Amino acid sequence: MNWALVSFFIYLAAICLVGVVTMRIGNTYEDFLIGGRRIGPWVSSFALITSYMSGYTYTAAPGLGYAGGYSVLWWATGDAPGNAMSFGLLGRRLRKYSELLGAITLPEYYEKRFNSPALRVIAALVILLTVSMHLVAQWTASGKLLSVVFGTEYFTGMLIGCVVVLLYTIMGGYLAVVYTDFIQGLLMFAGTQVLFWVALFKVGGFAALNDKLGAVNPALVTPWGPDMAYYGLLAAATPIILIIMGSFGMPHITIKHFSMRNPSTARQAMLITGVFVVLFSFVYYMTGSLARVILGEGLADVEQAGVKLWFSVLPPFWAGFLSSAAVASLMSTADSFLLLLVSTIAHDLLNRFSKHEIPEKKRLFISRVLVLLVAVLSFIVAMNPPALVFTIVIFVFGGMALAFGVPNLFSVFWKRTTAAGVIASMICSLFIYVGATLGNWNLLGLHPFIAGLVVAVAVLVVVSLFTEPPHKQTLALFDAASEYGDVPKAVAAGASAAVSCEARAAVNERREFFDKVLAPAGN
């Protein structure tokens, strides 16, 4: 009996069962998109971690470690602070702000925060472009992983991953996504730890790894890498800054803040996230260095180094267990991307600009159909696989960090931020970043992301200062979202002293304003 396949299919059956159960729990439109805002700290934390890690964990990261040795740990250095600060700095305020505004997607939050339908459309279009590319990378990772696991063609491996994600996402929506993410997160954590420590034991420990890796190429055990890519303070800091800003800006991570049970959940989730990511992130990069020593030179595809490593050092059943962890890594991100793309199309474009309000049951049906269509289209694109998952992931990651990371932070920390400032920041920073990356522009020797980040911040501040300041209701709402206290007590029930009477009045006035201004035309 093939025990690798047995353990793998047990995992797949368990994940599909979660989809069936959550379909019965959540049957409203808000449940389908953000889980009814009732997700606790542990599930929120693991949902964020697994969505962030993606198929990158078992393909791109080990491949990067295989090629670059210890130098790639600069990327891991940004993981823990980035993910923890995503909850600590952004999560609490964004959770509270989104409920005050009644927003269930990031583009809707932008529109209501800045009173700008144009900003909602621009944000939605950027999400459609960037997330679609990232979803293609997840299907590509699925094909690379499962083709090694089952010894099949790339297409077959990709098809298995796509079908399973599609099934439970259509059935259970956001609740299925976050609860499967929690299970997958535990599996990913256990899987990476088992692989790392078993492989390290086989090599002979850290000292032996250092000696053997240095014998392959002395540059592999330096912090700068074989091609000196990380030589110098700015070069080493660039991946750290990119990772941290990406944690603030990735829309499928931001939505995890909207869905938390209450704003105070963010503090608990921050601690859980920080601990687990520290234990997680360095390990999956180091497996690439271990693979370089154990598997030797000459891998045709370095992004299969991690997969080949576990079949080299583990018994069949545990190799199947690791296969499940690997599939979990890409499923946990692919499902979030699918749901994000669907919410953007259905909620931010179709429902928002429809002449007549679409009934909730119809919106739910449309959302499920769109999950299928988006998955099929992205699957077709991924049939012609790009060379490296890492290239796609980092390029798109940087774009999302600039387009949304800077506006997200400024929207909750600087009340003078305006819609014009955010729009100008998005357009200018993406122009610089994409142009410099694809056109090899020389921007005073700066990395394209760093140049884009400088432009994003400078343009947002300057344009905001030179345009009309926000209305007094917007400013009062900002103050209400900034103070401690949960929304139901502070605003709905009016029983908490965390929000002033003036701010509560402004919130109610603002809600009436949005009911009139943002209602679909024709009502």
Describe the structure concisely for a colleague.
Helix content is 77%, strand content 0%. It is built from 22 helices and no strands. The radius of gyration is 23 Å and the shape is globular.
Describe it:
- This protein is mostly helical and 523 residues long.
- It has a single domain, classed as Sodium/glucose cotransporter, CATH 1.20.1730.
- Helix content is 77%, strand content 0%.
- It is built from 22 helices and no strands.
- α6 packs antiparallel against α13 and α7 packs antiparallel against α8.
- It is globular, with a radius of gyration of 23 Å.
- It starts with a helix and ends in a 6-residue tail after the last helix.
- The C terminus is likely disordered.
Characteristics:
523 residues; 77% helix; Sodium/glucose cotransporter; mainly alpha; single chain; globular
Share of helical residues: over 70%
**Overall pLDDT:** 79
Give the beta-strand count: 0
Strand content: under 5%
- Structural domains: how many: 1
Q: Output the structural class.
A: mainly alpha
The helix/strand series, from N terminus to C terminus, equals: HHHHHHHHHHHHHHHHHHHHHH
* The CATH homology group name: Sodium/glucose cotransporter
Q: State the distance separating the first and last CA atoms.
A: 63 Å
Which spans of ≥5 residues are poorly predicted at pLDDT below 50?
488-504, 513-523
InterPro entries: Na/Glc_symporter_sf, Na/Pro_symporter, Na/solute_symporter, Sodium:Solute_Symporter
Protein name: Sodium/proline symporter
Catalytic activity: L-proline(in) + Na(+)(in) = L-proline(out) + Na(+)(out)
Function: Catalyzes the sodium-dependent uptake of extracellular L-proline.
